[in-house]
What we know:
The protein folds into two domains: 90 residues, Alpha Horseshoe (Serine Threonine Protein Phosphatase 5, Tetratricopeptide repeat); 105 residues. The protein contains twelve helices and no strands.
Amino acid sequence: MTQPGAPMPPTPSLDRLLAETFLRVRQERYDEAAVKLQELKALAPEHPGVLEIEGDLAFARRDFRAAERLYRQARTLDLTNARLEEKFATAVVKVHEPELLSHLPPDDDPWHRHFHRLAWASAAISAIFPGLGQLYNGDMLKGGTLFIAAVLLIFAQLNGLMTTAAHLHLEGAPVTTGDLAAAAFKGVNLVVVLLYAALWIYGIIDAAIIAQQDD
């Protein structure tokens, strides 16, 4: 008589059928495996391998409670099967997953869960370049928008200065730093400077306020 916890003695036909069925499960040929399972249950319905395969098929159907029950039954018959132990643990986690997730903080922002935002740090980072403080706060969309807008304004200003330098060069006049500085605060270039300054100030204030609200 087989003692509890010890695998049932193998037979050639049963072993071959188990191997064939396990192979079909691994290949995700579940319909074929289900047909083979019926043959196995007719031969040895309480065999741990048969119960394990039935649990595998239940798991594949996402019937995790049935899989947990079948794996548990198989474990009591074969306590040395590490693979079966792993499957049972996975099924248990799947069954109790909603309960486990309910104990997590309601905040769905992973950045916020792992980093404590400081208002002064957010403002300081924004002072380095517009948008960086928003990225620090976890607001990727706003931070990216401000960053790209600042880069475009810088390129627009550089283009204006290069145009001024090219005109001076064509006129035969020397290109000095003073000329370029004066050109930066005239006409369209002045508008670009004012827009960048407004963007810079907005970025600092917004980043500090948002970080303080999230604190």
